[in-house]
Amino acid sequence: MRALIIDDSRTMRIIISKIVREIGFETGDAGDGQEGLNWIAENGFPELVCCDWNMPEMNGLEFVQHARAMPGNEAMHIMMITTESEADNVMAALEAGANEYLMKPFTKESIQDKLSILGLVP
Amino acid sequence: MNELLNEFLVESYENMDQYEGSLIELEKDPTSKKLVSAIFRTLHTVKGTCGFLGLSRLEAIAHAGENLLSLVRDGVVSFNQAIASALLATGDAVRAILAQLEKTETEGDLDYSELVALLVSLQKPAAEGAASVAESAHPTKAAPTEARAVPVEAEAVPVKAPVKAAPATKAPAADPKPESKAVKAPVEVPVEASAAKAQPTAKAPEGDSPSGSKASDSTVRVNVELLDRLMNLVGELVLTRNQIVQLTGSLESVPMQAACHRLNHITTELQDRMMKTRVQPIDALWSKLPRTVRDLAQLCGKQIRLETEGAETELDRTVIEAIKDPMTHLLRNSVDHGVESPEERRAAGKNPEGRILLRAFHAAGLVTIEIIDDGGGIKVERVKARALERNLITPEKAATMSQQEVVNLIFQAGFSTAEKVSNISGRGVGMDVVKTQIEKIGGMVDMSTEVGKSTTCRIKIPLTLAIIPVVIVGCRGDRFAIPQTNLLEVIRLDKNLMVETVHETPVVRLRGNLLPIVFLDSVLAIKTGEREETQHLVVLQAGDRHFGLVVDTIHEAEEIVVKPLGRALTAVSCFAGATILGDGHVALILDIFGLGSRAAMFQSTRAANAFEEEAKAQGVGTGALLNELLVFHVGGIRAAMPLDMVSRLEEFSREQIEEAAGRQVIQYGGSIMPLISLSRALGFDETKSSDGRVQTIVYARNGRAVGLVIDGVEEIVRGNIEVQPAGRRSGVLGSAVIGKQITELIDAQDLVRTHASDLFE
Amino acid sequence: MNKTRQLCTFVLEGQTFGIPVDCVLEVIRSLPLTHVPLAPEAVCGLINLRGQIVTAIDLRRRLELGPLKEGKTARMNIIIRTSEGPLCFPIDEVGDVVDVEERLFEPVPETMTGTARKLIDSVCKLPGTLLLVLKGDYAELAGI
After folding, report:
1. CA distance C48 to chain B (A)
2. Minimum distance, in Å, between the CA of residue A120 and any CA atom of chain B
3. In chain B, what residues touch C55 (CB-CB under 8 Å)?
4. Same domain, B35 and B146
5. I need a surface site. Which of A107, B131, B536, B623 has the fewest CB within 10 A?
């Protein structure tokens, strides 16, 4: 299974990629929503997208809207990575088509929990 | 260091640069949503990662700043000076913690609760005031002018607050280089756009980024260390190429010659391209300056707009590093002395807001950087009077000098333009230090002025420092490299040009002038090997000082790759680095400035040579071997210190001394140097010189310098000296008879350990 | 099983020294030394290690072992890694890499004096010989 990590912080990308890889995903990454869309255009839909909220160029919500408008995206799960200060936005993202959200800071276990809700890990 | 932490530091430093830059722009354009969002995001990113790394202190500060920013972003609080200052202080605090993390991998234990409280307080009262007034005045919250029209309350609140927060945030800044080299920041290197660009763009939504492809599409991040290594390899290749070209010169083989020609060509090209990968736009330095200008301008009650032109001009990163201090100093000088106060400007019919323009461009293989202010200009007559008063020029000379020449007198040692003592800039470091720093990297600096209108300071520097042209000289069998930038001419010493002595100072008569000379073997204390029969004189220039250096042989002129010396040797001021010669041997590169000051110290003591002869004759010395000693008086006694411990001798004026953290400090070479009163440290009463001058010995270790205040220098002596142990006295090694007088030998290391241990850990 | 540490050993003036294997970059034949005038006395010169300039430290001097006998030269160089860059030690001969059990390490005896004490991390009791383990600390080794 493949996961796409979208975050404007390199450090965060490293952190999330590491955890997701430990769970058993191959990972790809992108620095903002637009790069994320480009990645999908090139590599096809991944099973999982972990997407930051606040990014330059194209933010998380815009990414969800654009990605969900692409044909054939149904099997892709989108998990928004947020902080408590952005909690209000979570609803908007879920409405736009995100499947789950995850509060920073999180652990391998909390990601695993969320993924099992999504049915991505046993 | 943990790779993740390292990545976090690199990224966060970048983020904080951006944070600061955007904040200062926001001050000019307080309604820009885009800027507020960008500022918010940088802090948000830092905060977001903190939780994973367990950085609770940093998280708390970033969180408080972020909350305040989100209110500004949403138009609930209007942006004002107080908020700007608090947010800048937040940036300082974040940086301080990052620096601490870099050094110790912990957040340190400084208390930032005052800052956090300030950030919280700014959210409330101003918020109520601003929100209500803004709303009643205008239904649209974001209306910019309205938001600004209510500064009465908003500004009244925290006038004092930022000042109060300062001690908490300033303390860690005692480390003068938060972005030290441990964290190697990668630079962006443009590569040919390849697959990244070829990807289908049809799905990319329109109108998102009108500029089209982003920089990241065609660049990769490369670690600076890797680049340095590549640069070194290219250097090696250049050397090998030189060898091969030499060897094939004598061969008849045509195909070999042709291949060699190609090798030559490709190597040159490769070297050229490689140089280009290490360049950075000068903006890497400039982007940090608006903050400096802003803070200074506020302190002197001036209004100054900083503008830049040619910020994309590229320079080798080593050069950027080297001009950082002089550039900052010149800019401070423009703010403090160049631009007039708003009242003066109004009176002169000018815009009360002054302007400083930084301009950079390439020309003739050099980079020119200009700092142009639209201030009152330099008062030529006053400069002339000051120069006369200080005996820098003779009245005859003054009469014939052009305005340009007079203005440039301010770069002379011993000149200070400050009419009244200013607390802000210019103090401590004279413009001569700026000039020396720039010349040290092969650059030039000059000043021109138009009275009442503007002053322009122009710096010209080479593009790169990594490969320099040198001449290789031989001295008692060793080889040394002399940078061409310092070299004026080479002359053979024979009966037409002989060394003579004036008061025991060796000189030669060169075209009617007396040129002081230095023997390379004696200044470097080389005793092995033999002098050649025929010797050569290399005429050198170090700043304004000319001197001749006597060496044995002159080898070829070469382009060499400068390699750093290990830390064990950085204290030896006579060498700028080392290089590998064509035959694989290592040669040291002479630092002409270091050599010059060392030589000057020799010559200031006419008795030195005589004493050496005397010492030899008497066969003095069975005790500790202390080759050369600087003898001085302090607190009424005669004292001495090994010359290798002395980095420089400097004289300051007493007014230049400032007080910081309970310690006397002085601005020196672009940073703050603590002073230790040697009389007090040795338990004597402090003696104050009557002329208001302070003599110091600069003692430097591990890149830190301390000024040891003495009463005055007497002489330099050489030879073996018998040391009598002193019993247990702090800072004293023992005593010895030097020049027939009892002299105390100072243990500088011990003194510094006792009185400034915090600086030399 | 007992935990062991790997040490690279070498001999200077008849005394055996050890340095943790992971600090050792390489061991090479003696290279020409370029003398550095005015350098701290522990520095015996610079070597060209395939294009990299490495400072050579005279361990004899630092350890107060007395000068090299007239006419003799060091035959080998050990290059070690420190947090502040590589250093080179000219030495008499290189010994083996030995695995030493953790329990054989002992702190430096209280009675040891002089600069040697700052340079030696611990002492190892090997059968028939005492092995002095060096600290890989740049500043101490270079005597600055």
Report:
1. 6
2. 24
3. 565-566, 568-569
4. yes
5. A107
CB distance B630 to B641 below 8 Å: yes
pLDDT per residue as tens digits for the range C13-54: 888 899 988 888 888 888 888 999 999 888 999 998 776 789
Question: Cβ–Cβ contacts within 10 Å for residue C32, how many?
Answer: 12
CA distance B419 to B452: 17
- Evaluate if residue A3 carries a pLDDT over 50: yes
Specify whether B472 is located in the same domain as B491. Answer: yes
The answer to whether the beta carbons of residues B588 and C34 sit under 8 Å apart is yes
Buried b (16+ CB within 10 A) or exposed e, B23-56: bbbbbeebbbeebbbbbbbbbbbbbbbbbbbebe
Mark whether B458 and B529 lie in a shared domain: no
Contacts of B68 (CB under 8 A, 6+ apart): B77, B83, B86, B87, B119, B120, B122, B123
Q: In 3D, which of C77, C28, C38 has the Cα closest to residue C57?
A: C77
The kind and range of the H/E element at B11 are: helix B3-28
Q: Classify domain A2-116 at the CATH class level.
A: alpha beta
Indicate yes or no: CB of C53 within 8 angstroms of CB of B584: no
Distance CA B69, CA C15 (A): 66
Do B and C touch, 3+ Cβ pairs within 8 Å? The answer is yes
User: If you write DSSP's letter for every residue of B553-601 in order, what string do you get?
Assistant: EEEEEEEEE-BPPPGGGTT-TTEEEEEE-TTS-EEEEE-HHHHHHHHHH
The reply to whether B187 falls in a domain is: no
Nearest CA of chain A to the CA of B39: how many Å?
11
Domains parsed from chain C with CATH numbers? 4-142 (2.40.50.180)
Query: Vertex B286, ends B282 and B289: CA angle to 5°?
Result: 165
Residue B608 pLDDT greater than 50, yes or no: no
Run of H or E including A62? helix A60-68
Whether there are 3 or more C-beta pairs closer than 8 Å between B and A is yes
Which residues of chain C neighbour B568 with C-beta distances below 8 Å?
39-40, 42-43, 55, 57, 87, 138, 142-144
Rounded to an integer, what distance in angstroms lies between the CA atom of residue B99 and that of residue B179? 7
Does B569 share its domain with B627?
A: no
Domain chopping of chain A, boundaries: 2-116
Tell whether B244 and B310 lie within a shared domain. no
User: Distance of CA A41 to CAs A35, A46, A51, A55, B204, Å?
Assistant: 10, 11, 17, 20, 9
Record: contact A9-B66, CB cut-off 8 A: no
> Chains A, C in contact: 3+ Cβ pairs under 8 A?
no
What is the total count of domains within chain B? 5
ipTM above 0.85, yes or no: yes
Cα separation, B732 vs B726, whole angstroms: 7
CATH assignment of the domain containing B321: 3.30.565.10
pLDDT tens per residue, range C89-132 = 998 888 888 888 888 888 887 777 777 788 888 888 888 888 89
Domain of residue B739, residue span = 605-759
Average pLDDT over residues B249-262: 78
Cα-based torsion angle of the residue sequence B602, B606, B607, B609 in order, rounded to the nearest 10 degrees: 60
Q: In this structure, are B316 and B405 located in the same domain?
A: yes
Report whether the peptide linkage leading into residue A105 is cis, meaning its omega lies within 30 degrees of zero.
yes
Q: Which of B45, B51, B66 sits opposite A9 (nearest CB)?
A: B45
- State the amino acid at position B721 in one-letter form: I
**Which of C34, C35, C38 is the best substitution to test chain B (most B C-beta atoms within 10 A)?**
C38
Could you tell me how far CA B412 lies from the centroid of its own chain? 19
CA distance linking residue B220 with residue B395, whole number of Å: 61
Q: Looking at residue B355, what is its pLDDT?
A: 93
Same domain, B611 and B534: no
Claim to verify: residue B245 and residue B321 sit in the same structural domain: no
Of residues B49, B70, B214, nearest to A9 (C-beta): B49
Geometric angle at alpha carbon B81, from B78 and B87, rounded to 5°: 85
